[in-house]
Amino acid sequence: MAEVHASADVKRCTRCHVERSLVQFHRSRTGRLGRHSVCKNCHRERWSVASGYVSPSAQRRRIESAARKSSWRRECRKCGKLQPQSAFSRSKSGKLRTSCEPCREENRLGRHTPVEQKTCVGCAAVKPASEFYRRTDKRHPGKSYLASRCKACWVTLPCRTRARRIEDRRRAAARKGKGYRANPSAWKENQPSSDEKTLRLRAILIGSTIRAWQRFALSESAVEDRKRKNRLAYQRRYKLHRESEIRRSRDGKRIRRESLARAGLSELYLVAIRSSCDECEYCGRPIAGRAHVDHVIPLSQGGTSDPANLAVVCAECNLSKGTASIYVWAKAQPRHIQERVALFST
User: Fold this and answer.
1) Are 323 and 298 contacting, i.e. CB atoms less than 8 angstroms apart?
2) Separation between Cα atoms, residue 57 and residue 64, nearest integer Å
3) pLDDT value at position 159?
4) N or C: which end of the chain has fewer CB within 10 A?
């Protein structure tokens, strides 16, 4: 138990037996002076993660996890037996392999053991080991194994392997016999002159230039076609948008005329009330320019063209209000507009 001295600000650590100030001890509800009996330095050395300390609960969880993993079983794809998880190794990506370690070891030993005969996977014939190429195992340097195909099948593969290239060169040299090493004088006689070389080079350059110009011309024509298609598409979109705007404006005018007719009014009444008011009934500012006549309750929401539902407003208020109700529009406006709208609506 920690020893308490006369000074209330000093306490002795029960681990290192050094008197330290209370700031060097962690707080505790049950400890003397409200502090732990072990100082912070000793606590860090003994129970921190960096010191390698593992709590009893963590040790118990590790033991349970190991027991649980050891009880897991997995089927090996090679032998078909259920093996524990510990019998499978992990790949570089951290995943469990599909074959158990005994099967993998057996495969490695069988691969490197010398064989006298082997079955070719290409022609399905059993041939001696001398009829197969020997390949180096990249995973195990210094060891080699026989190829899966015999030499005859290996040459007929579509891919140009090293063996096929060597065989093609040998056959070509034996067929022609015109190489420099076979007959140097004949080889020199068959070489083209400097003028022939110049003509050949010029033809190659001209052909490459023509092909490059053709590619450039095709690319330019493709760019022009793309621009023309984009221009036509934009014109079609603009025409459709313009027609819809004209139709919407025409429908709005028709609805206004019908509403005025139901109220027994005409367009001249709108002109008269526009000229009779100089300030906006919504914001109170002087109207600069042409005044607008707005429906307090929009026609789209069941409003009418009665004089009580009409208001002379400025263009800014009318356009910002749109088809919204005056009560909804006024909530997003300044305070003085809200007060005027409240008086106006009453």
Assistant:
1) yes
2) 11
3) 57
4) C
* Distance set, CA 302 to CA 76, 129, 141, 152, 299 (Å): 77, 97, 89, 92, 5
| 310: enclosing H helix or E strand | strand 310-313
The owner of tokens 């040299």 is 173
pLDDT of residue 190: 61
Determine the pLDDT at residue 6.
43
Closest by CA position to 319, among listed 346, 339, 292? 292
β partners of residue 84 = 73
Please provide the size of the chain in residues: 346
Which residues, 6 or more positions from 183, have their beta carbon under 8 angstroms from its beta carbon?
A: 177
Helix, coil or strand: residue 244 = helix
Q: What is the mean pLDDT of the chain?
A: 76
Angle at 225 between CA 219 and CA 230, to 5 degrees: 125
Residues 6+ away with beta carbon under 8 Å from 278:
286, 287
**In contact, 147 and 138? CB cutoff 8 Å:** no
Query: Which residue is it, tokens 């060097």?
Result: 24
Burial classification of residue 190, based on how many CB atoms lie within 10 Å of its CB (0-12 exposed, 13-18 middle, 19 or more buried): exposed
Rounded Cα distance between 12 and 3, Å, is 6
The CA dihedral of 100, 102, 108, 109, to the nearest 10 degrees, is: -170
Q: What amino acid is encoded at 171 in this protein?
A: R
Q: Which residue has the tokens 């090293």?
A: 162
Please state whether the predicted TM-score (pTM) of the whole model is above 0.85.
Answer: no
Distance, CA of 68 to CA of 73 (rounded, Å): 10
